[in-house]
Design a protein that fits this description.
two-stranded antiparallel sheet, 8 helices, 49% helix, 17% strand, elongated
Length: 227
Amino acid sequence: MKITLRILLSIAIVILGYLCVMSIVTPIEFEEKQLEREKLIIKNLMDIRKAEIAYKDQKGFYTANADTLIDFIQNGKVAIVRKEGTLTDEQLKAGLTEKKAVAIVNKGNEKEIIANGLENFRRDTSYISVYESLFAEDYTIDKLEQIVIIPFSNGQKFEFDTSMFTNEASGITIPLFEARAPYDSYLHDLNRQELINLKDKRTKLNKYTGLKVGSVNEPNNNAGNWE
């Protein structure tokens, strides 16, 4: 009987010891894997932000469609302005602006160019593909779709949303966008209880349960919630 009790006690001690160790190790392992995965997700969100800004610069608004964004990266063009010379304070005080200076130079009237001191002033515009300009160093053309796919999510795309925000004071309306990766999409295969704890903590802080860039509720300079 004593031997049986000793064996059972030893087993209980081992089990309790294991549980104590795991209560410390599990959260650490979960956080390490979370941070490791989020480095890749943040990279994608920053690339999405670059593409969305370029899209808005041309269209005047953002897109909430991942396929439209990839098509824009593959086939869209961005203007590249080569600048030579700058306007002096005296020229600016005289009412000369960049637009006026470009118009004078483009007319090619040498006397007018000299009279306005624009002999060394040039603004030449050329066009390059969005892909070549922003993404060629990081992606081959056949891998571009990876930008809108959440890493570790089994192929799930980032969630996109757009809105128009009107400033009540100024009456100015501006476009906004948001791209999101919920915790459930890229932490689904990790410890379930740790995931529940993480989501609960974020919810209590009234924060998004995942990673996102931009905001459709108010202007935030397209910042990410990790920044």
